[in-house]
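dumping the sequnces here before i forget
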Amino acid sequence: MSGTLLEVTGLAKRFGGFVALDGIDLAVGAGERVGLIGPNGSGKSTFVNCLSGTLRNEAGQVRFDGRPLDGLAAHRRTRLGLARSFQLPRPFLSLTVGENLRIPIEYVVHARGRGRIDVESRCAELLEMVGLAGRTDELPAGLTQVEMRKLELARAMAAEPKLLIADEAMAGLSHQEVDDILALLLQLNDRGVTIIMIEHIMRAVMHFSQRLVVLVAGRKIADGLPDEVIRNPEVERAYLGE
Amino acid sequence: MRGFPFFLVCLAVAAAVFLAARLTNNGYVFFAGYVVLQYVVMAVGWNILGGYTGYVNFGTAGFFALGAYCTVALEKLVPLPLPVVMLAGGVVSGALGLGMGYLTLRLRGAFFSIATLAMAVVAQTFMVNWPFVGGSAGAFVIRPETAEYFGIDYIRYLFLLMLGLCVIVIAVARLIERSRLGDGFAAIRDDELAAEASGVPTLRLKLFATALSGMFLGMAGAPLPFYVTYLDPPSAFSLAYAVNTIAMPLIGGTASWPGPLIGAVLIATLQQVATVTISSAVNLLIVGLVLVGFVIAAPRGIIGWFGLDRRARAHPRRLAVGRT
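..and the predicted 3d for all of it:
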């Protein structure tokens, strides 16, 4: 681990009178694997949306790779190396699997101006990595749920990010499928990608995370080693009630 | 340059069309053919925004009439050669498209369409109250007998200009489809949030599409005053332009340029034939019936019907269903 990649200070977001995020602080080191958990409605997805630029935060600052992200549009953040996958896969349905990957390659990798790469071989490589080799010309509508999640991750990875935020990439999958996605994320981390995993499946989170962060009602109530965090009385109370 | 051979093929086809029209030795062919070509430009131009990015523009008549009124205004101020006037009309309509795109960029689906319709109404109200271009009484424009430089009958000249514009709009549409821009447009059409997350600058691309599409609609309208010789707001802003321009790509297929081209040639020709053989009032009835037929039997248009269209296969009714 070398240095801080993502630094969030005092992040706040309100929807009308509802406080969705209330002063979140979080630092993530380069190469780290962080798990982010919390009950439904605790603000996890809002947090991701604020980080990725889909929503504008009212207060606080996000610094990524040494520069502030305030006011940057989502596509600019993706170009800086902050990629996300969506909770429900959102493939481009009229484009083939290969074309889905071509979009971030053309608009992120080529737009960075560090030379062009061969789109077709890169697509093949990405699909190979997520276990969808040879499916380039299919339409996403023909993919199964787990394959769509894999496509979602492949598309996020096609942007060659430094930080990947995987928003519930495993929800609704079977035991074996969860293991597939988990192995994939660990493999990405091995290649140097920092990963924030948002997940409800505790088995996966505990296996994956080096550090666990818990959000409850828009506030961060715990941040530390996974084993210690889940024994934290406040966390137990949030999940199991009084 | 990429796409140049295709451009040459288009030119050759256009030349063949012009020669074939001459061979008929019938002036009316040019007169009717002009309208068909005008609709080809409008349908293919409209489709850049409506088909590629999925933003359905109901304000076609606004852009079209603005181009026409630009000609009326310029004719009174500084008479210029018609190609230059067309370019000016395109620039003005393109600017309107840019402005409309900027003001409506947060609207999607049916809401965007309603806003474009409102824009056309505002533009019409503006023209009705602008005496310089005739106001509600309309304006007369004198059509020269023959075109300068070319020395051919003016209707043939208009036909030729519109034919040239067809070549340009088709070449541009095809170039977009095969470029990074076309991929970006398709990503916007499918899912704007995911497009943005994949690095697509959605705002900039949408503005480009609204401006370019508006420009072609305006250029299609610019020669109109010389064609009809009398322009008044109700005819220039006729809803028939909007209805026809939307129906043609839907009937032909929206995913790529052959769709609107086929739809426009088919419907506009049918309308011209019906105008002569049955009555001019039957025009919109034809569009209505054909459109209903296609929505039921072939929602992906003629191109999709024959399975020539890979991109539209996944979500055939995307255009018919408003996105929110």
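Chain B has one domain: 4-238.
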